[in-house]
From TrEMBL:
Membrane-traversing stretches: none
Entry-linked SUPFAM superfamilies: ALDH-like (SSF53720)
Domain annotation Aldehyde dehydrogenase: ranges: 35-476
Pfam families named in the record: Aldedh (PF00171)
Gene3D superfamilies: Aldehyde Dehydrogenase, Chain A, domain 1, Aldehyde Dehydrogenase, Chain A, domain 2
Name of the protein this chain belongs to: Betaine-aldehyde dehydrogenase
Protein species of origin: Candidatus Lumbricidiphila eiseniae
């Protein structure tokens, strides 16, 4: 079969002006960091984009002190409706600068521009709009009258949805009256620093949000700082565990959004055209570097061959290449480290006896790339059925009965998300009820909405982000053993 050729359709970089170096964003200003600066590159071309500061323990102390001061003197005293106005302003500025942010995100992360432009950045704005509306309605958050903010929140985010994870963290924290010190991932700090410029444009009071950059050690030092009241972490289960150990025995509150190994379950009565699109979206969106990716396909045995055949012919049409090209479906992986891990796990899959199929793509000679890959004949005990690969690799298992599908889907240490494909509503509801997963999609996959809670069971973490539930992570219900409130707060600041 031959396919139409596409002409190159690159998005212009003209809107994006990068500085040659970026400092830390502390107390409303960019300041030099005490550590050695590091480079951020485009994972598609390995082009050097800019140089980024490393925060030392002293820098972290300065940032936390700025957040504390802003909490005590400004943010906790401010009428809640005014806090809301700042969040609306940030949301509108994100919309105004959306093309620039999308280009920066695709350059720095490697994800296709059609995803950053149509998914990531619109959701960032939606998150700020949604939580802006909550700021003066916290009495209706289900936590009783006058729920209280916690104080200074330390927030650490991963590289797969850099600006979106920032929005998931900062929007609810600010709406509930907390101040923030946020650390983005080392390989994708760029859009967080552009976001800092947006905060300056929005004239957010200095110190309400501070952004400190650096590697894992910077994150660990932030978590360890004694004047932090709340730690919110999204990342790997391994680092989540170490953070849980670090804050154990302190008064710090903790929420963890960790890894996943979601089952995407296709019954034989499923609308197959849609299911194929849903399987593709489930595992190849963002090159599969998605915590809630549908990485385990559970397909009913009698339609297995048809589903695989249709999936392979669909995957043959996906275009891998320049993330800034508007026709690109599969961009670059975020880092060499990520590529090596995926390559290793795919080799394990073959060694364990599963059948490997990869779509034929022209792999660019620079950057980090992996062709969309499907493993069939995967056993439940196989490492590629159990471990999070975090890449464009689908493991296919089969089932005969609904009970078997449920048992296999739940046979994982994780519990973040799942998908069900069936024409029969009663079956969808019954299966969803039996799945131990925080989010269950029915006849769709990877849909996100700021009003819908997101979070895990088991080793996928605890706490919820999004919606009314997401507010609880940053509030103390009246009557709880709350941290001391400042005089200002008692005088009616947090409403
Ligand atoms: P990671 O290594 O755990 O890193 C996440 C963040 O933590 C990064 O900012 C990282 O900094 C920092 N960090 C590393 N070591 C730390 C330490 N000891 N103390 C404090 N912070 C530390 O995870 P990743 O590999 O970047 O991200 C992929 C993982 O995140 C996957 O497992 C995925 O499932 C999970 N994830 C979960 C969700 C969710 O909502 N549940 C969403 C997205 C991703 P550096 O980058 O500078 O090392
Ligand atoms: Mg980068």
């Amino acid at each position: 079969m031959t396919f139409l050729d596409y002409a190159a359709a690159p998005e212009s970089r003209a809107l994006l002006t990068l500085r040659s170096e970026y400092g830390l964003f502390i107390n409303g200003e960019f300041v030099a960091g005490g550590g050695a600066p590091f480079a951020t590159i485009s994972p598609a071309t390995e082009e050097h984009l800019t140089s980024i500061a490393t925060a030392t323990e002293e820098d972290i102390a300065t940032a936390v002190a700025a957040a504390r001061r802003a909490y005590d003197t400004v943010w906790s005293r401010m009428p809640a409706r005014d806090r809301g106005k700042y969040l609306y302003r940030i949301a509108r500025l994100v919309q105004e600068r959306s093309r620039e942010l999308a280009v920066a995100e695709s350059l720095d992360n490697g994800k296709p521009i059609k995803e950053s432009r149509d998914v990531d950045i619109p959701l960032v704005a939606a998150w700020f709009f949604s939580y802006a509306g909550w700021a003066d309605k916290l009495d209706y958050a289900g936590l009783g009258a006058n729920p209280r903010s916690l104080g200074v929140a330390a927030q650490i985010i991963p590289w797969n949805f850099p600006l979106l994870m920032l929005a998931w963290k900062i929007a609810p924290a600010l709406a509930t009256g907390n101040t923030v010190v946020l650390k983005p991932a080392e390989t994708t700090s760029l859009t967080a620093l552009l976001f800092a410029e947006i905060l300056q444009q929005a004239e957010l009071p200095p110190g309400v949000v501070n952004i400190i950059t650096g590697a894992g050690a910077t994150g660990a030092a932030l978590v360890a700082h004694e004047d932090v009241d709340k730690v919110a972490f999204t990342g790997s289960t391994e680092v989540g565990r170490s953070i849980a150990r670090q804050v154990a025995g302190t008064s710090k509150r903790l929420t963890l959004e960790l890894g996943g190994k979601a089952a995407n379950i296709v019954f034989d009565d499923a609308p197959l055209d849609e299911a194929i699109e849903g399987i593709v979206n489930g595992i190849f969106f963002n090159q599969g570097q998605v915590c809630c990716a549908g990485s385990r396909l559970l397909v009913q045995e009698n339609i297995h061959d048809e589903v695989i055949e249709r999936l392979q012919s669909r995957l043959a049409t996906l275009r891998l290449g320049d993330p800034l090209d508007k026709n690109t479906d599969i961009g670059a992986l975020n880092s060499r480290e990520q590529l090596e891990r995926i390559t290793e796990l795919a080799a394990v899959g073959e060694a364990e006896g599963a059948q490997r199929w990869s779509s034929v793509c022209d792999i660019p000679t620079t950057g980090f790339w992996f062709a969309p890959t499907i493993f069939t004949g995967v056993h439940t005990s196989s490492r590629i059925a159990r471990e999070e690969i975090f890449g464009p690799v689908l493991s296919v298992l089969t089932f005969r009965t609904t009970a078997e599908a449920i048992a296999k889907a739940n046979n994982t240490p994780y519990g973040l998300s799942a998908g069900i494909w069936s024409e029969k509503g009663s079956r969808v509801l019954a299966v969803a009820d039996a799945l131990r997963a925080g989010v269950v999609w029915a006849n769709t996959f990877n849909r996100f909405d700021p009003t819908s809670p997101f979070g895990g069971y088991k080793e996928s973490g605890y706490g919820r982000e999004g919606g009314r539930h997401g507010l609880a992570a940053y509030l103390t219900a009246s009557g709880d053993n709350a941290p001391l409130r400042t005089a200002a707060e008692t005088q009616g600041g947090v409403q």
